[in-house]
Structures are given as structure tokens and as C-alpha cells.
Amino acid sequence: MNIGLIGAGAIANFLLKEINYARHEGHRITSVYVRDREKYQRLEAEFDVKLYTDFDTFLESGIDLVVEAANVEAVRNLIPATIRKKDAVLISIGALVNEALLTELTKLARKHNHLIHLPSGAIGGLDLLQNANALGTVKNVSLTTRKPAHSLIDEVITEEKVIFEGQAADAIKQFPKNINVSIVLSLAGLGIEQTMVRIIADPHIDKNIHQIEMAGDFGEASFTINNKPLPSNPKTSYLAAMSILGTLERLGKNIRIG
Ligand SMILES: NC(=O)C1=CN([C@@H]2O[C@H](COP(=O)(O)OP(=O)(O)OC[C@H]3O[C@@H](n4cnc5c(N)ncnc54)[C@H](O)[C@@H]3O)[C@@H](O)[C@H]2O)C=CC1
Ligand SMILES: O=C([O-])CC(=O)C(=O)O
Q: Are 67 and 88 in contact (CB under 8 A)?
């Protein structure tokens, strides 16, 4: 499968190394869409890819699927055109807090017979949540995210500080680079208004910690994910990048788990 990548930052570089160097069977990144060709020119030789700054030409470059690893604006601006022509894997899932965009993408995917894959990113438990809510009987879902203070705020603090408490709908608007996980959790469960989020800036940790609690007629479940950050962008967890790889690997399988 020839993959087209949007973005050339921390997650994109992880994917280029893992897919094109390790030569994952059946997958290869062949095209990368960037806004600044000069800045990323070295990638062409390093990973044997072609860079594009024109999005239509990128979409027509012989790719089978698009992976977005850029930001929420890129999802808003580029994925409607993508989904008319290709399947897509999105990681800046926070963009889907916009219900009009979510509806538009759902309609386009159905009309053009394409799939939108939303990897579980830096969290887990989404299979359990969807199963537990099969009868609509999950009552509460909450996420507490704790990150190193410098990833979240400019202020220097010596004690941990709760910097957000409220609905996922508002959390992603205030922290679009840090809490995409709250939106995939919302989409898997109770929606953006009923999924409650707390964000804590902690000056004493070096991991991105996500704690999920859920309760309903099925019982209760809780998950804590202590994520190592990606060295090239500590806001982003290593697992988030790996979840795209995992999603791509599962595409070709005839047995689906979960
Ligand atoms: N769902 C999840 O669990 C997670 C999602 N994320 C999200 O993944 C995205 C990528 O993360 P990183 O690679 O760590 O960020 P990064 O900041 O290292 O890289 C983003 C890259 O995208 C490029 N970019 C931005 N807009 C673009 C556009 N319109 N077209 C082409 N390139 C564009 C930037 O120039 C930059 O090189 C971010 O939106 C981040 O918030 C990050 C971690 C977890
Ligand atoms: O990588 C993480 O731990 C979570 C993150 O940045 C996001 O959800 O946007």
C-alpha cells in the first residue's frame, strides 16, 4: 500500500523511519504533503519519498491512503477533499469536535465509499467502552490527563496545578495540541458534552499520564496509561505514533480483534 503523509513533524518522522527504513511488509510512504518544501527537502533523499506542496497533485500521486499527522486545521482544511478520493487515518482527532465537520466527513465517506480510521492515539480502552455502551447504558466517562507542566503552560510552577476542568468539547478548544485523546474517547462513548476532562500541569513528572474512568450497567473500568513522550516533541506520546502504525498493520488482517 502506498501511503501519503500530511505533515513532517515528530509523528511523521517516526512513521517515515519505521515504515520506510524498517520496510513494514506491504506498506511504504511514497508522498509527503508539506507547506514549506525547502525546510523539509532533506526528507526526499533520506526516506526516498516525494514532497508535494500542491494538495491535489499529492492526492493524485499514486497513493492508496492518506495519513494525517499535522494538526486540527489540516484536518479541517484538507480531509474533506481527501475523503472524496482516498481512505484516511487521522491523528489530530480534536478537529472532530466540530460537529458540522464530522457530519460532512461522514456523508462524504459514505458517498465516495471511503473509510476514516481514528487510531486510539495515546490512550486505550476504546474497544471496551464501545462494547460496554452497545446498549447505550454507560453513564459516566472521565479523563484525567497529567503532563509535564512545560508541555501545557508557560508559567513556571513548583506544585501541580489543575489547568482545566470541564467538558471535552471545551478542553480541546483550549488545548488543541494536548488533548486530542479526549475527542476520540468522546466519539467512542458519550460524546463531547458528557465526557468530562481534567488537565493537570505537573512540574515533577516526565511522562504523559492519562487516567480513564467509566461506569455503567456493565460495571466499572479504569485505565491508567503512563506514556513515554516522543523525544522530538514531548507533548506527544510515543504510543500515539505507534497507534497509527498499529492501525495500518491491522488494515490488512482478515481477523479483527476487539
Ligand atoms: N490522538 C492523539 O492521541 C494524539 C494526537 N496528536 C496530534 O497529532 C498531531 C501531530 O503531532 P506531532 O507530530 O507531535 O506534532 P509536530 O508539531 O511535531 O508536527 C506537526 C507537523 O505538521 C505540520 N503541519 C501543520 N499544518 C500543516 C498543514 N496544513 N499541511 C502540512 N503540514 C502541516 C507542521 O509544520 C509540523 O511539521 C498534532 O495535531 C497533535 O496534537 C498528538 C499526540 C496524541
Ligand atoms: O500524546 C498524548 O499524550 C496526548 C496528546 O498530546 C493529545 O491527545 O493531543
A: yes
* Residue 218 CA to ligand 1 centre (angstroms): 36
Is the CB of residue 152 less than 8 Å from the CB of residue 178? yes
Q: Tell me the pairing of strands 229-230 and 233-237.
A: antiparallel
DSSP reduced 3-state for 225: strand
User: For residue 93, which ligand has an atom nearest its CA?
Assistant: 1
Question: Cα 76 from chain centroid?
Answer: 14
Q: Is 90 exposed, middle or buried (0-12, 13-18, 19+ CB in 10 A)?
A: buried
ipTM computed for the complex: 0.98
Tell if the pTM clears 0.95, that is, is over it: yes
Query: From the CA of 152, how far away is ligand 2's center (Å)?
Result: 11
Return the SS3 of 128.
Answer: helix
Distance CA 206, CA 226 (A): 10
Ligand 1 atom with minimal separation from the 232 CA: 18
Domain 2-118 is found in CATH 2.40.50.1020? no
| Residue range(s) of every CATH 3.40.50.720 domain in the chain | 2-118
- Using CA atoms, how far residue 219 sits from 129, 177, 189, in Å, is 11, 32, 15
Beta bridge partners of 233: 230
User: Who's near 166: CB < 8 A, 6+ residues apart?
Assistant: 196, 197
pLDDT tens digits for range 194-244: 999 999 999 999 999 999 999 999 999 999 999 999 999 999 999 999 999
φ/ψ bin of 68: left (φ > 0), alpha (ψ from -120 to 50), beta (otherwise): beta
Could you tell me which CATH class the domain 126-233 is placed in? Answer: alpha beta
Q: Which of 195, 186, 199 is nearest to 102 (CA)?
A: 186
